[in-house]
Design a protein that fits this description.
With 170 residues, the chain is of the alpha/beta class. Helix content is 19%, strand content 26%. The protein contains 4 helices and 7 strands, in the order E-H-E-H-E-E-H-H-E-E-E. It has a 7-stranded mixed β-sheet, covered by helices on one side. Helix 1 crosses helix 2. The longest helix has 12 residues.
């Protein structure tokens, strides 16, 4: 969840996703809205679909390399195959130091030319940009094989004012 001091969203949408394939498709559709300099924060329980969504994003952006969870390397850079932006995929799960620890990754250097996706970034990366897209992925927890997810998208900052997120629910 976002901290209480977070600004009001400039754009918002909630989407129901019923399978990993649909989560990947959401990522591919989202890639069409993203541009260099965008910061995307993903929040959700383990197994919610954050990496599956990012894999779809990578496919939609047309980047090189398999998009897998960067948990043990913290960050992976996927260069573009064409003219689009690189994808920087960060897993901040093991980072506890907030922005200081994140600064060691030089994300502020990568941000202007890349799409930066941060899993588990709440309270750690908000200061990187006044503009960000925050996706909260809710799933049933416990012993369940339920594939249904609710994805709440919140565009924050001037970058997202007037952006029509409804194309993502097609």
């Amino acid at each position: 969840m976002e901290a209480p001091h977070s600004p009001a969203p400039a754009a918002s949408l909630t989407i129901d996703v019923n399978s990993p394939e649909q989560m990947g498709e959401l990522g591919r559709r989202l890639a069409k809205l993203l541009r260099p300099g965008d910061l995307v924060m993903l929040t959700g329980e383990l197994g919610a679909g954050k990496t599956t969504l990012t894999r779809g994003l990578g496919e939609g952006l047309g980047v090189r390399g398999a998009v897998t969870s960067p948990t043990f390397v913290i960050a992976r850079v996927h260069p573009p195959l064409g003219d689009g932006p690189a994808l920087v995929h960060v897993d901040a799960y093991r980072l506890g130091g907030g922005l200081d620890e994140m600064e060691d990754l030089d994300l502020d250097v990568s941000l202007p030319d890349s799409v930066v996706v941060v899993e588990w970034g709440d309270g750690k990366v908000e200061e990187l940009s006044d503009d960000r897209l925050h996706l909260l992925i809710h799933r049933a927890v416990g012993d369940t094989a339920d594939e249904r997810r609710e994805v709440a998208l919140r565009g924050i900052g001037a970058r997202w004012e007037g952006v029509d997120l409804s194309a993502l629910s097609a």
